[in-house]
């Protein structure tokens, strides 16, 4: 059982503001039309949800984090705390959109079944998230730091990074026709150090480690990843790989 990642909207905006900015290509793939009713799955603090609303869409945002939903509501969005493995919407959306969230949902069949129920017939499911090979160099450094402490990474691993073939099979099994699906390497410069990124996103690995050792643990990972992820000017760039897809709900 993995520990729930906690989301602090201020820390997220400081260390991960790039997530929404770099999400615009998937908004373009969605091609939202004014008046369309759209579900933003894993909307976080609602930056992209707000973009969809500004494009004239009738948008609902859902996210498992109450803190992030509070931040989304402060943007005046229709946003709700929901476990995206248990969506209860019924044929009400023209499209379901998701950016940088599906890799946090480890039971894809349950998520996709809920998305299918939420869509009107022929509705679109368009998204982008971490795919196979995502953050590989971070994983190598993390694995070494955990192994040194005799901690099993597998049981704490909070992410789902499928290949296009695996995710396409999940979509098709649920009655989606897949229009496009591709892996896109997207090395992503960070606004700060890798330790800031780890503090924002890697809490799931902390429970077996004494609190007073947390800072050392993240520093050790950063030191191990320095050669592969940091340039001579001190700019950190994480080896993100996106899985971007567009699918259509085909069966009634
Ligand atoms: C991602 O967007 O790929 C990602 C973000 C945080 C942790 C792991 C992956």
TrEMBL record:
Pfam families the UniProt entry points to: Methyltransf_11
Keyword vocabulary terms for this entry: Methyltransferase, Transferase
Gene Ontology MF term list: S-adenosylmethionine-dependent methyltransferase activity
Biological processes per GO annotation: methylation
Entry keyword annotation includes Transferase: yes
All copies of domain Methyltransferase type, residue ranges: 39-126
UniProt-listed InterPro entries: Methyltransf_11, SAM-dependent_MTases_sf
Top enzyme class: transferase
Record EC number: 2.1.1.-
CDD domains given in the database record: AdoMet_MTases
Name of the featured protein: Cypemycin methyltransferase
Gene source species: Symmachiella dynata
Gene behind this protein: cypM
């Amino acid at each position: 059982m993995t520990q729930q990642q906690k989301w602090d909207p201020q820390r997220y905006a400081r260390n991960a503001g790039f997530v929404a900015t770099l999400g615009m290509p998937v908004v373009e793939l969605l091609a939202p039309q004014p008046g369309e009713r759209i579900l933003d799955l894993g909307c976080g603090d609602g930056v992209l949800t707000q973009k969809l609303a500004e494009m004239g869409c009738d948008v609902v945002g859902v996210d498992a984090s109450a803190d992030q939903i509070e931040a989304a509501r402060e943007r005046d969005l229709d946003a709700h705390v929901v476990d995206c493995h248990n969506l209860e919407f019924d044929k009400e959306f023209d499209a379901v959109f998701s950016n940088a969230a599906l890799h946090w949902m480890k039971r894809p069949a349950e998520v996709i079944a809920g998305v299918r129920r939420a869509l009107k017939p022929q509705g679109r499911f368009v998204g982008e998230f971490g795919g196979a090979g995502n953050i590989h160099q971070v994983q190598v450094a993390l694995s070494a730091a955990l192994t040194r402490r005799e901690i099993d990474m597998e049981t704490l691993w909070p992410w789902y990074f499928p290949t296009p073939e695996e995710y396409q099979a999940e979509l098709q099994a649920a009655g989606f026709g897949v229009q496009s699906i591709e892996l896109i390497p997207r090395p992503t410069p960070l606004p700060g150090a890798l330790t800031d990124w780890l503090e924002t996103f890697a809490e799931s690995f902390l429970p077996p480690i004494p609190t007073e050792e947390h800072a050392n643990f993240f520093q050790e990972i950063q030191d191990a990843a320095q050669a592969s992820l940091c340039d001579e000017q001190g700019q950190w760039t994480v080896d993100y790989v996106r899985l971007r897809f567009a699918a259509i709900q085909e069966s009634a």
